[in-house]
Amino acid sequence: MGKVKIGLLGMGTVGTGVWDILKINKDEVLRNCGYEIEVSKILVNDLDKERNVDAPTSLYTDDFNEILEDDEIEIVVEVMGGIEPAKEYILKSMAKKKHIVSANKALIANHGKEIFEKAQLENVMFLYEASVAGGVPVLSTIRESLAGNKVEEVMGIVNGTTNYILTKMAKDGVDFNSVLKEAQDKGYAELDPTADVEGYDAAHKLAILGSLSFGTNIDLASIYREGITKITPIDIEYAKELGYAIKLLAIGKDRDGDIEMRVHPTFIPLDHPLSSVGDAFNAVFLKGNAVGDLMFYGKGAGDMPTGSAVVGDIIDIIKNRSS
Ligand SMILES: NC(=O)c1ccc[n+]([C@@H]2O[C@H](COP(=O)([O-])OP(=O)(O)OC[C@H]3O[C@@H](n4cnc5c(N)ncnc54)[C@H](OP(=O)(O)O)[C@@H]3O)[C@@H](O)[C@H]2O)c1
Asked: Which among 7, 107, 112, 253 could disulfide-bond with 73, CB atoms 3.0 to 4.6 Å apart, if both were Cys?
């Protein structure tokens, strides 16, 4: 039985999920790719941090070069987040002919073009399923199963925190700030919630989703963006009386080459499947000119759902690499 060695950049929420899945689902992974996957090094910031994961301390390092210079590591899994040094580490790993898996939506939305070009230049694979809708396998489906379609429209609830807040406001009639505070207390929302509640995170995901769906590089700055901070319980009540739910939607449309991309709170008819996507769940609704309407639904965050997408990408690379 062969072995493929990988290096993990980061052992936070997603890194922990990846480690646990590779352990719990060892047999399934082996059956699905024909190789044992071994995490041979793990890069972290703080070597002394207490971690809720059973990886041996001998695997940890705070020196990226230990991963870069290890020729046995074929795949680098970037689950550290942020723009730098994540971007530098990805580009340097590609130059060493290592394949990359990343969950980093902010990085891909801002610097995807440069990263894709480098991957092509170095003839390595770069997969990023977890960057949009966490565990929901929407990107690989668009790339592979829907490759025979012209995608005309994608519409998604791609930010779990804002969907949780809007769902709770609608159910309990409470205002935005109270629900946000409760979500922060429970750890569902960041202490600085700007990226979520102002729609930046959803815009990052829409840039990635739109670029893949419409086969073009979407400039993040061209996406209209509006968050949910101005929504009141009265807005939600009125919407309901008129037969609508209010959701933060990421919307991309290709009207004969004229591409429209926007993120904003939207009235959705109560009989539309996206209106019933509640709590922190994500969903992506897509229209292809051959397949018609499709909807993907599931968990958009968390260690195991996000880890599921990352491990899927690792297996995909192992099955498709040339060596
Ligand atoms: N959390 C989710 O559910 C989710 C879902 C989809 C996508 N993502 C994406 O996945 C990525 C990781 O998210 P996360 O929630 O797992 O983050 P996290 O819990 O904050 O973990 C980040 C990890 O990276 C390490 N790290 C950060 N900067 C570093 C540096 N400069 N040098 C070395 N190590 C560094 C940290 O080390 P220490 O542990 O020592 O601090 C930590 O282990 C992000 O791009 C995020 O957007 C997350």
From this structure: 7
